[in-house]
Specification:
Keywords: Isomerase, Metal-binding, Zinc. This protein is an alpha+beta fold. It has a domain of about 80 residues: Jelly Rolls (Sandwich). About 25% of the residues lie in helices and about 30% in strands. Strands 1, 4, 5, 14, 15, 16, 17, 18, 19 and 20 form a 10-stranded antiparallel beta sheet that branches. Strands 2, 3, 6, 8, 9, 10, 11 and 12 form an 8-stranded antiparallel beta sheet that branches. Strand 17 and strand 18 form a beta hairpin.
Length: about 400
């Protein structure tokens, strides 16, 4: 028998978060008391969702341990070998640039976890790189216009920039013939500071409407003196319009800059940082896991199919992600493998096998469908994650 589970999702108060996006989405007072960066939907130990079951509140972690079939029905076969969910769903409310970062592959995450465990590095330590033993591929879908950095520009593009901005440090790095990223990250401190001063001097001479100049002013205004600005210059500036997505595989250098997005990822919090952050930066470890061949950074278009849903390509056959825009009295049918639905605007009524649930913006609901499709009616937008057993 199908079942809905009313859900409360935690919000992470990272400094780059917005004081208005999630508060306004959830019809709370604006501005919020603290920055609100990410709403998490899932079972990650750092912030599990809480569901209502038989009149008691339990975390999704606890329910998966006690009675996974109660939450997922036959979809329990898609769980990981440790009984955990293979995903974490988020809303990102980005009001300042995130750190430039990269995530490990499955093998790198396991090896890094084992190494830090053996070395006795506390999970809570600021120098800990591997918080869990999972990889972290991810896809971000733009709710509003979203600006990102992803991958490293070609040497030909960088050579043009070096001349246009008269950046001697970049000319010298390119002349070595070695990969650019390690050279930038390993510049001695005094050389990096000279390069930053030269870059900002060049940026100040650019017209106010220049796209690259505006980008670098925005980043430097929030991270003054951070050598991550040198890395940002070397990266592709990718803009997502609402509905477009960007996929970030293991080893891909990336950073979100501003906007609101829905993000689906493997259930991990493993991050190696390259700049634009006061947090721990481990350059040797980052360079050990970064992919020297950065992936294509073009936005992914996912137009609505015959079923009226946007279907996004994922890295794992066990997972699916669809977006349903419900409007004008046109109901949508969410797939029968749906296990959680997240609403980003409006109000929706979800129905399955005679049961219904009212869902509002900024909230999610877990649902056991037993293979039946979920009808979504009302006015709003929903993202549904499905599991394939």
């Amino acid at each position: 028998m199908a079942e809905f589970f009313a859900t409360t999702d935690p919000i992470q108060d990272y400094a780059w978060g917005s004081r208005s996006v999630l508060a306004r989405m959830q019809s709370r007072e604006v501005p919020s008391a603290t920055p609100e960066a990410e709403l998490w939907v899932g079972s990650h130990p750092s912030g599990p969702s809480v569901v209502s079951v038989d009149g008691r509140e339990v975390t999704v972690i606890e329910l998966l341990q006690e009675d996974p079939a109660r939450l997922l029905g036959s979809l329990t076969s898609a769980l990981q070998s440790d009984g955990d969910l293979p995903f974490l769903l988020k809303i990102l409310a980005i009001d300042a640039p995130l750190s430039i970062q990269v995530h490990p592959s499955p093998e790198q995450a396991e090896e890094g976890w084992q190494r830090e465990e053996a070395a006795g590095v506390e999970l809570s330590a600021s120098t800990r790189n591997y918080k869990d033993r999972q990889p972290k591929p991810e896809i971000g879908v733009a709710v509003t216009r979203v600006e990102t950095l992803s991958g490293v520009r070609s040497n030909a593009e960088l050579a043009v920039l070096a001349e246009a901005l008269d950046q001697q440090w970049l000319r010298e790095i390119l002349a070595t013939g070695r990969p650019v990223l390690p050279e930038v990250l390993q510049l001695p401190h005094d050389q990096a500071q000279v390069a930053l001063a030269d870059l900002m001097h060049a940026v100040d001479r650019l017209p106010t409407h220049d796209e690259l100049g505006a980008l670098l002013r925005y980043i430097s205004g929030r991270h003054p003196g951070d050598r991550g600005l040198l890395v940002a210059l070397c990266m592709n500036h990718v803009i997502l319009e609402p509905g477009q997505a960007i996929f970030t595989p293991a080893g891909q250098l990336h950073a979100y800059l501003r906007g609101t997005a829905v993000e689906l990822m493997a259930c991990s919090d493993n991050v190696l940082r390259a700049g634009l952050t006061p947090k721990h930066i481990d350059v040797p470890e980052l360079l050990a896991i970064v992919n020297p061949e950065q992936e294509d950074t073009d936005p992914i278009d996912a137009p609505a199919g015959a079923d009226g849903l946007r279907h996004y390509p994922l890295w794992d056959d066990r997972l699916s992600l669809v977006c349903a825009v419900v409007a004008g009295g046109q109901d949508r049918e969410l797939p029968g493998n749906t296990c959680v639905v997240l609403c980003t605007d409006g109000e929706l009524t979800l129905e399955v096998d005679g049961l219904s649930h009212h869902l509002t913006a900024g909230h999610s609901v877990w649902c056991r469908t037993d293979g039946s499709s979920v009808k979504a009616s009302g006015q709003g937008t929903a993202y549904a994650v499905g599991l394939n057993g």
